[in-house]
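so my prof wants the structure for this chain in the tokens format not the other one, which i didnt know existed until like an hour ago. anyway here's the sequence
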Amino acid sequence: MLIKALGAQLEHRAIKRRVQDETERARRSGQPKNKPSYGYAFVRLTPKGKVDHVALHPVASKEIRKVASRILADQTGEITVSRECARLTREGVLTPHDLLAEAALGYLMHGKKPVVGDDGRRMKIAPELWSAATRRALIEKTKPTQYNGKESGRKTHGLTLLAGILFCGTCGERLIVNGLKGYG
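here's what i got, hopefully its the right format
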């Protein structure tokens, strides 16, 4: 039994090393890995084949652009990222993971940062959802505000249970419970 366990452990390490090597190779050559960022879709020339290129998703790219334009056009401060996500959820549309990510500029991402090529420039693998200026405007519009000298987020509506306490075991993001009826 011990020999079998040792063999399994060695095989696991070998598989893990092969996966890491392949991920690094793909990153160096500018090939996308894992899942596409919100608003994008992998294009395969044959079913189950390698990803040929990354293109704008026909529905998601329009939705995320609509969300961005609604937030930027709002003068009252009532349209927030969380309210837009709630609206999309009610409409049955998948919501974006991160509206402000640099992936929206069409860059190949690794660890939430753009991959830099040998030439020192960020690797672009897809058309951008919006310009860098629009991204900066979104960051400015959605940044935390100051109340009585203290930094505070935008107005919250309802409970954010487990915020900052519980984290996703897959992606590491904070978990919150929202949309509870009868609160806020």
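also thought this was worth mentioning. The beta strands are 40-44, 51-56, 109-110, 113-114, 145-147, 150-152.
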